[in-house]
Design brief:
Elements (H helix, E strand, L loop, with lengths): L35 H36 L12 E5 L6 H8 L6 H12 L11 E5 L3
Antiparallel strand pairs: 1-2
Helix pairs in contact: 2-3
């Protein structure tokens, strides 16, 4: 029977050390077994992949959401709980007169005017004959 002796040589590293530090731990590799340079390259690739995913998927969604919120008419939205009807302005009508006819005698006409302005997106109290207004239904 022939005897075979395996020859094994301890790896050497560029710094001339035998691959172990003074405490006996392997130096020059990370937990994954890769050399530190390879580990840094791998983490840079991972970071690059994350940035591509963010740019391709998340950024367009954020931009779309911002555009939708900016383009949505906020002042003309009618609350589903508010009961409204349409009123056509005639010559001589004022916002105060219309609101006074809708407001409870113990209520505040100014609050009704604010509600009419909000419902119609009005920025002034000027009305034109033939103009259609959404008004809250009287209670």
């Amino acid at each position: 029977m022939a005897t075979h002796t395996a020859s094994w040589t301890q790896p050497t590293f560029p710094n001339g050390r035998n691959g172990f530090d003074r405490a006996g731990f392997v130096v020059g590799t990370s937990i994954s077994g890769r050399a530190p340079q390879q580990e840094r390259r791998a983490s840079k690739r991972s970071a690059g992949l994350v940035m591509v995913i963010l740019r391709v998927l998340v950024l367009p969604l954020v931009i779309a959401a911002v555009l939708l919120m900016a383009l949505a008419p906020a002042s003309t939205a009618v609350d589903s709980a508010t009961r409204v009807e349409t009123y056509v302005v005639v010559s001589g009508d004022t916002l105060w007169d219309i609101a006074a006819g809708l407001t409870d005698p113990s209520g505040d006409v100014r609050a009704t005017i604010d509600e009419i302005e909000d419902l119609n997106g009005l920025t002034s109290s000027a009305l034109q004959p033939g103009q259609s207004l959404l008004i809250p239904r009287p209670f």
